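From the pipeline queue, job 12 of 40. The input is one protein chain; the requested action is below.

Action: predict structure.
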Amino acid sequence: MPAVGHTLEFPRKDTAYKKKESIPFDEFYSNVWKNRPRDEKGEKCRRWLVFALAGFAIGVTAFLMDQLEDFLVSKNRDLLQYFIDDFDDRFNSPWRFWLPALSYALICAFLGFLAGVMTTYYGPGATGSGVAEMIGYMNGVNYPEFLGVNTQITKVLGVTMAVASRLCIGKEGPLAHIGAIWGAASVYFPGLGFEFLQNDEFKRTIIAAGGSAGVSAAFGAPIGGTLFSYEMSKPTVFWTFDMIWKTFICCSTAVLVLALLQTLASGNVSDGFRGSTIKFGSQMTNDKYENTFQVLPAAIVIGVIGGCLGALFINVNFRMNAYRKKLLTTKWIKPIETACWSFSTGFVFVSVPFLIYISRTISC
């Protein structure tokens, strides 16, 4: 199945490509810029400082997103438990299931609807994960509304509410986009003398570092996050050895700040840093398991099954998105679609454990 917008005609009849412009990097390489009066040592220190500040902002943002998500999920779960406990003896058997399940699913639908409204009407630049747009930007394509205050606010709040609405999505890709926006914004922090960094060439560099820091905060992996943008920005013509170290500092700062804030928020400082809880959740047990060669065959089988399911998912997702572009032609229907999916997944998350519980009760 060909990609949406794919054509073999030349010249193209559509003008979609004209909505995007190339990023001008000429100023950075001009003699006027190279020969300007400057403090080389001061500029060198500020270059390192701006990467650290970007990492700090990304770590704080990831922490706030995680806390807001936990708050929304816990409140919805508390309401579900309230209906299960307090209404257990007041209704007949069918309502003991339907009332808690519907209340939980409706709140999920409401959160999904709010996220859809924000993305559709307030910050359309936050649509999708943002990774594809970041790749295009690093290779010189100026995507409309890829960077901006509206996009950042929508990305942070929209993703948090979408995850809390129990949609089967994650914060990893969006955190890369959020980090990229913070990277671009860091060169505009007032009073720090970053004016010489406010050019398109350096912004591309700091955006790549910010995207890496977002991935690092999601997975608790500063080295992996550094390599992420390096791989995504191929042919990587602007990467240097010096930039790799600066990107690593940005990623390490984001992971450190996130881990420190999560440790302080947990109230148990002696428990150690919690740098990977964005992706993998809090540690629920202290049991330790030994890794042996006995689990290797099972790991291989799981890997094969995961690869096949991943290929199937990509194929189905590609076809569904192509169909959605033909079906969802008006803005108002998009938040409603999101609310419907949120309601469905929320209802399934409650009904499946209930059915398992009923089946076990009957069997016993």
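Job complete. The chain is about 65% helix and 0% strand.
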